[in-house]
Amino acid sequence: MASSLYFSAPFRTLPPSPSLPKSPRIPFQVSRLSHSLTHKSLAFSTGIRGVSGSGRFRLRAKASMAEKGKGKVEVFDSEDDLSVSLAKYTADLADKFSKLKGSFTVVLSGGSLIKSLRKLVEPPYVDAVDWSTWHVFWVDERVVPKDHDDSNYKLAFDGFLSKVPIPPGKVYAINDALPAEGAADDYETCLKHLVKSNVISVSAATGFPKFDLMLLGMGPDGHVASLFPGHPLVKENEKWVTFIKDSPKPPPERITFTFPVINSSANIALVVCGAGKAGPVHAALGSGQNSDPLPVQMVSPEGELVWFLDKDAASKL
Fold first, then answer.
1. Which of 49, 204, 249, 313 could form a disulfide with 309 if both were Cys (CB 3.0 to 4.6 A apart)?
2. Could you tell me the fold of the domain covering 28-310?
């Protein structure tokens, strides 16, 4: 099948974008730390585990972390505190995988996630991270031009990519000249090429691509990527990348990774802020049973799942 990808050889790399402007109830235990990373840690029956801070980028105090079911949970007093911890978490994983295999494959989402990554473009990370090893992908994308305000690429470029020296040939955006179905097929072809060339690992358990880190947000309806509650795409289990033309949230046409790809990840961070998302957070982490699970409840990676919540998003726990 012919392909018209915007990637590195034999694919064309995505050029820089000069047209874009740079620009039960669960008790809480309060851990008062000696710096700005003061946060509340959810106390579950499995108990509290301390984060050793053994990574390359160290904070001045330990952060408590808790486990529940499929994931670990951190709750922060503010989104700013959350972003400090998320930067360290991401930088440590980047350092780990770069030393282990010479590359770091990271998947971004849209929404407020890019804002929460803002500490990565500040010291010490902006100068200390080996950005040359990063390969950047999107878990979903709106089928719009890259300079459109709805574009997840534009959001990431303005708030993150334009501020760090990741090689443009390692930033894998969709071909926005294609319609939704063609763009999804094109992106899957790209992933398969990168698997074949050993840039992206493969899950031994599933055979799907295994990204080092997937940074996910969540919508107020509990959707992740462009996988929406009640939509048939949540059950897609063969394709790596698929498309949607009737998204309940505009714009209607999008491409998205499927759950088999999402759940083959080595690490997933679910970053959720705001009281408007407290309901789905409670559905996913509370003690109740839901016969029709929300998409966010279907996130269950092979590796580690960490929830990064501000206190408003955790207010119903």
1. 313
2. Rossmann fold (3.40.50)
